[in-house]
Amino acid sequence: MGYALLACRVLLGLVLVASAGGKLRGGEAFRAFVEATRELGAPARRARSIAIAVVVGEIAAALSLAAPPNGFVGFALALPLLTAFTIAILGALRRGTNASCACFGASATPIGRRHVVRNAVLITVAGTGLALGAAGASNPTHLAGALTAVSCAVIGALVLISTDELAELFDLGSAPGPIGR
After folding, report:
1. How far apart are CA 10 and CA 75, in angstroms?
2. How far is CA 58 from the centre of its chain?
3. pTM value?
4. 17 in any annotated domain
5. pLDDT tens digits, one per residue of 119-171
6. Which domain holds residue 158?
């Protein structure tokens, strides 16, 4: 159980750091996130405050995931945050808005079902980590196993962070370019 807990901590922590970092990368990235927050349903006059709260929540959760002994608080912070993101995305999809995903900074990619699936995976990781921490999972004892868990988590995090790029890569029907000329 310790290896799974370590993998959950690393995967979720990396995604949260990338998410907060992407939004704080520059003024344009943060403004895009504030606009996306408004488009996802936040009242216009509160969108900036909500966006700031989201970034603070992501940073707090990521730091808590790194804290000993098992990152339990980080999972407990991440779970409602991810659930709120998912509910906001589902609401925007239901309303048929053309909101963009600024999850990792400025992006012109409109939100879609893939974002719901990505968030469902992250919610599952957070829930699993929370359950493992509550069950008293301990830190891994073997270096090779820990390195394997961390490697798997890094790969999983990269896949989740690159959801939009991977979807675009495999969406051959709408991909512009010289292929098929």
Report:
1. 11
2. 9
3. 0.87
4. yes
5. 999 999 999 999 998 888 887 789 999 999 999 999 999 999 998 888 888 87
6. 1-173
